[in-house]
Amino acid sequence: MRATELQLEPPGLYKGAVSSKKDEVWIAVAGVEELPDRTSKKFLAVVDGAEQECFLVNFQGRFYAYVNRCCHVPMTLDWVENRFFSAEGRYLQCATHGALYLPESGECVAGPPCGKFLQRLQVATAHGTVYVAVEHRNRPRQND
Ligand code: FES
Hints:
Strand content: 35-45%
Strand order of the largest sheet: 1-10-11-2
Number of strands: 11
Mean pLDDT: 85
CATH class: Mainly Beta
Number of helices: 1
Bound molecules: FE2/S2 (inorganic) cluster
Distance between the termini: 27 Å
CATH topology: Rieske Iron-sulfur Protein
Low-confidence stretches: 12-20, 140-144
Order of helices and strands: EHEEEEEEEEEE
């Protein structure tokens, strides 16, 4: 996938980041049609040198991806497997102490880590697929 084919999500937010990070690679995480509004999909990716659980969400037709780790205590957010949205669908909610995060920015707006941000990953779409920028080490490993 060439960077020039990617439509950044949201448009323009990550201008420059696509081509400047030589150690990044775009991985296909989901089909655009696979994730309706306010749904999510978990995936594994190398972030900061270690494999971490991450998640992709569709919020109002835009895609966002974060490391699945609360800013309060380093625990996963989902209270039921792959369930990140609060009951009314406006926020991402941490299962442990109920912190509420904005899906579009990852900012915590209520709860113990208020004002902190989830670790965000770059997202882009192309040809009906949602891609996330991750470290090179996400490429398939050879058997040692
Ligand atoms: S661990 Fe998420 S709010 Fe406490």
